[in-house]
From TrEMBL:
This is ABC transporter permease. PROSITE patterns: ABC_TM1 (PS50928). The lineage of its organism: Bacteria, Pseudomonadati, Pseudomonadota, Betaproteobacteria, Candidatus Accumulibacter. The keyword Cell inner membrane does not apply. It comes from the Bacteria. PANTHER family: INNER MEMBRANE ABC TRANSPORTER, OLIGOPEPTIDE TRANSPORT SYSTEM PERMEASE PROTEIN APPB. Keywords: Cell membrane, Membrane, Transmembrane, Transmembrane helix, Transport. It is found in: Cell membrane. GO terms for biological process: transmembrane transport. The chain crosses the membrane at residues 9-30, 114-138, 145-168, 188-211, 248-272, 292-318.
Amino acid sequence: MLAYLVRRLLYALPILIGVNVITFALFFIVNTPDDMARMQLGVKRVTPEAIDKWKAQRGYDKPLFINAAASGSAVFTDTIFFSKSARMFAGDFGRAEDGRDIAREISSRMGPSLAIALPTFILGLLVTVSFALMLTFFRASYLDFWGVVLCVALMSISGLFYIIGGQFLISKMWKLVPISGYGGGLDAWKFVILPVLIGVISGIGSSTRWYRTIFLEEISRDYVRTARAKGLSELAVLFRHVLRNAMIPILTGVVVVIPLLFMGSLLTESFFGIPGLGSYTIDAINAQDFAVVRAMVFIGSVLYILGLILTDLSYTFVDPRIRFN
């Protein structure tokens, strides 16, 4: 197990380096530091002197990858790539264009993002798996048919409709919770409950259909017929056999959500005024703050790779036949 974990971590390092280099190329080759200076300074204040001063203040006056004028290790370290991208491997994300420390902003905004993402993830998983098991139990019946119709209808509605509709109905009409904003401490639940509810409802359709397909595939296998022949009830077959053997594809689907637990939901946080990582990313895109966007892309890549490793390791707990050497 330890050898497998070390091997996967070593495999992940070239992937992260490749993502880092590609992200850097997209930001600094397609969009040069001169272009960034013009966007930040505005049309009226753009002069060659102002551009040079802006680049010097932010460290963009250096070569991109190789500093031919330097000597020794400074050939590679005294570059924009090393100062702006390579240092992210050590957790140094630098500063945003407004001067604020990006790492400090990320740590302060991670709490509100997790306050929404974790309940949405846990409740959504429980609701969709339970709903899918119910449809599988009543398969080929009217309940199954109308359940699938409901799932398709929920899938066909844009997530933006749930957000706007929920704000209008629950917050503006019924005045049960605030329409937007965020408060710390015990008052946070008033601002979190509506985004969590909307997040769970908007994900029921696609997730339930996915889990239902997995359960229906498992329920037609030979081991299920053997379990029924032994006299087990249909509920026992579903929970003791079908659900357990369907855990591997379920875990595989769950890994996609792991980065979102930390990165936050872009639309939800923006519309509800939640000061999380999702709204932080949207604000950085609107302000063309490429330092923040680069940092968020890098963190998302790291979290996704860690999620893949954790998913592989969790396979050993749900299926004893899987062993990593």
